[in-house]
Design goal:
Helix content of chain A: 25-40%
Mean pLDDT of chain B: 95
Order of helices and strands of chain A: HEEEEHEEEEHEHEHEHEHEHEHEHH
Structural class of chain B: alpha/beta
Radius of gyration of chain A: 22 Å
Low-confidence stretches of chain A: none
Number of strands of chain A: 15
Strand order of the largest sheet of chain B: 1-15-13-5-7-11-12-4-14
Low-confidence stretches of chain B: none
Distance between the termini of chain B: 36 Å
Largest interface: A-B, 15 and 16 residues
Structural class of chain A: alpha/beta
Distance between the termini of chain A: 55 Å
Shape of chain A: globular
Helix content of chain B: 10-25%
Oligomer: heterodimer
Strand order of the largest sheet of chain A: 11-10-9-12-13-14-15
Strand content of chain A: 15-25%
Shape of chain B: globular
Mean pLDDT of chain A: 95
Number of strands of chain B: 15
Largest sheet of chain B: 9 strands, mixed
Number of helices of chain B: 7
Order of helices and strands of chain B: HHEEEEEHEHEHEEEHEHEEEE
């Protein structure tokens, strides 16, 4: 028997109490957090001994075979064999109590380590080849799930997989600025991904961008007024749709291109901070509690909060100094937001695009990220359940350089 | 002091007239609210901040016995007063900023020209000198030191999109043409020009010669502006007294005002 296609979930029975969010056990050793960190960025890595080549699991400080401490995190394929399986019917962990019965199994990876994993419903009984995936669970920690060796028709609709990801299918989405180039692309991408409802936020409705009517024509898009500089506007919207938003996409941004000393005054910088930084905070104070309250609702719980930041949040692009600074502030704020939303198991996803091909990067030479490519990356990131997304070549390149040597990258940014 | 004695003075008469409702006070101001739109400049320029309000405390842990807010806005937001230094043509004039304007600038009579029917038909309607002369034939000569208020009923557009009225070619809203401004400034010596729209100039005034005549010529000659006025339909063509004092901002170029009109009862339209 394979997973049935997800059907439109029933509406919540409003006479029954709301299920309150609980979390799986979330404590990990520092070594194990490396596994989580890789998974958060979309990689599956385990430690490999530099001296004898033994792959390690669970993560540790010294090699199980030769006691060397030179353990290096390296990608693993996840190919393996399900060697035994069972069904868990009872747990004393509050989080697992509502998930049982739960299939569990031991998977022997081809790297010769055995791990305990949750089993996708479509996994055959042991013994059978499987693909082991690492996903972030509701506590934000890496957990293993074994998938069947070959994709089944409704693979993504598995109950446990959906618990660890934020697939937009049948979910209600708020896009905080639907009028911008990225906003229009995001509306289309979420409509294509099967979102149930898309609330399309619009500030200053007298400024309508070309193409906006193609968004409003989409059947599941509803335009709503939303100005992140105005806390009353944010409160008005949370008052009307706050109790329904499952995925919040915060793409609203103010973007101007200047350094900090070649243009007088602070008003443009202030306007950037008003939206890029304080705007996120106004959203967090309104939609944060509303989404946390519904994080375990029976049929379609609230699940994810996405911030469109910038790769220049990591290292300032001096030619766009004020914009970079506002995104760095937003990045810092989003880390606090992540810590706060995590209490309810809601994933905060940060997206770090390089230059987006819109009117504010006219003098930046290609490659530039198409708004549609950004939107696809966001949808895919939610489907995959990652936490940080670096879409496009520029973002990937700068992220790699930043990880290797942030100080060297700081110098390299001078010339860009 | 008895009421009879009070009435013997001009202010006493005024007080009595207000008490007896022989004088009516009409509020010409829009509410300062985050929902009211701000003027739009091309995006490469810095922008006028809209009205925003953040609570300091609301009888809560931030201040258990106090409700109050921090507010922010540009000098030229909402119903507001333009001082001459607002425009580059007025930059060198003396006593031309909000803190140095003579007090006499703040109380002046008004002539109200009703262009509401024209603006209803044509969002780009322009008030001309010829139209002002026609008005004078009916209501008398515009006195020196009076406000010329252009009634268009634009303030009744409560939807900000309709109030702004943008299309691909920019904003479309009524205002004076160059001839009207020249006439008012040089031949009638008005104190200033007031409108119901987001600026004293027409929506398309960037394309006039000179651009923005109501700013360039009015302010270059030390005259003022009032915009985002409302309730002009409650004013008589002549005889209203306008009280509109900007905040005393150091080197301020303008300020939101609570604009009021005194109107004799029975004189309203």
């Amino acid at each position: 028997m394979t997973t049935d296609a997800l059907k439109r979930p029933p509406r919540r029975n409003p006479t029954l109490p709301l299920r309150l969010p609980t979390l799986p056990p979330g404590n990990r050793s520092r070594a194990a957090l490396h596994l989580t960190a890789a998974v958060a960025e979309g990689r599956f890595e385990l430690q490999k001994c530099h001296d004898c080549g033994q792959v390690q699991y669970p993560p540790r400080d010294a090699c199980t075979a030769c006691l060397s401490v030179r353990l290096v995190w390296q990608p693993v394929s996840g190919e393996g064999e399900l060697i035994s399986d069972t069904v868990l019917h009872h747990s004393n962990e509050l989080y697992y109590r509502h998930l049982v019965p739960l299939r569990l199994g031991l998977v022997r990876l081809k790297e010769n380590v055995t791990v305990l994993a949750l089993l996708h419903m479509d996994c055959p009984a042991a013994t059978a080849p499987v693909r082991l995936r690492a996903h972030l669970d509701k506590a934000g920690q890496a957990t293993f799930i074994a998938l069947p060796a070959i994709d089944t028709p409704n693979l993504a609709d598995d109950r446990i997989l959906r618990e660890m990801t934020s697939d937009p299918k049948f979910r209600k989405v708020l896009i905080t600025d639907a009028n911008s180039a990225t906003g229009q692309a995001l509306c289309k991408a979420f409509a294509d991904a099967g979102a149930d409802t898309i609330w399309a936020g619009v500030a200053e409705p007298w400024k309508v961008r070309p193409g906006f009517s193609s968004i409003t024509d989409l059947p599941n898009v509803t335009v709503v007024p939303l100005d992140l500089t105005d806390n009353r506007s944010v409160q008005d919207l949370v008052g009307s749709v706050g109790a329904k938003v499952d995925i919040l996409i915060n793409n609203a941004e103010f973007h101007r291109s200047s350094g900090i000393s070649d243009r007088p005054g602070t008003e443009t910088a202030r306007a950037e901070m008003e939206i890029n930084y304080l705007g996120m905070m106004r959203l967090a104070q309104s939609f944060g509690p509303a989404m946390r309250a519904r994080a375990a609702e029976g049929s379609v719980p609230s699940t994810a909060w996405v911030n469109i930041l910038s790769i220049y949040a990591l290292s300032s692009l001096p030619s766009q100094g004020t914009f970079s600074a506002s995104k760095a502030a937003a990045l810092s704020l989003s880390q606090t937001l992540r810590a706060e939303m995590r209490q309810a198991g809601i994933r905060v996803v940060n997206v770090f695009p390089g230059p987006i091909d819109d009117e504010w990067t006219q003098l930046i030479p290609p490659p530039k990220l198409l708004p549609s490519a950004l939107a696809r990356a966001v949808v895919k990131g939610l489907q995959d359940g990652v936490e940080d997304i670096y879409p496009g070549d520029v973002a990937q390149d700068l992220f790699k350089k930043w990880r290797e040597n942030a100080k060297a990258l700081e110098r390299e940014m001078w010339g860009q | 002091m008895s009421t009879a004695e009070t009435a013997a003075t001009v202010l006493g008469e005024l007080t009595q007239a207000l008490a007896a409702k022989r004088l009516r006070i009409i509020d010409l101001s829009q509410t300062l609210s985050p929902g009211f739109p701000q003027i739009v400049l091309p995006p490469e320029f810095d922008q006028c901040a809209p009205f925003r309000m953040e609570v300091i405390s609301h009888y809560d842990e931030r201040g258990p016995n106090v409700y109050w807010n921090n507010i922010s806005f540009g000098e030229h937001f909402g119903t507001h007063f333009d001082a001459p230094i607002h425009w580059i043509t007025g930059r060198d004039l003396p006593h031309a900023s909000t803190d140095t304007l003579p007090e006499s600038s703040f109380i002046a009579p008004a002539c109200v020209v009703d262009c509401s029917a024209d603006a209803a038909c044509d969002a780009d309607f322009l008030l001309t000198a010829g139209r002002l002369r026609e008005w004078e034939e009916r209501y008398g000569r515009i006195p020196p030191g009076a406000w010329l208020l252009m009634r268009t009923d634009w303030s009744k557009r409560s939807d900000p999109v309709a109030y702004q009225n943008f299309n691909e070619a920019g904003q479309h809203s009524p205002g004076p043409d160059v001839s009207a401004v020249e006439f008012l400034v040089h031949e009638r010596q008005v104190i200033g020009f007031g409108s119901e729209t987001i600026g004293t100039d027409a929506g398309q005034a960037a394309h006039f010669r000179p651009p923005y005549p109501c700013h360039a010529i009015m302010h270059g000659n030390g005259r003022f502006g009032l915009q985002c006025l409302s309730n002009l339909d409650l004013l008589p063509p002549t005889g209203a007294l306008i009280i509109a004092a900007p905040l005393k901002i150091l080197r301020g170029s303008g300020s939101p005002v609570r604009a009021l009109a005194l109107v004799e009862t029975g004189a309203a339209r």
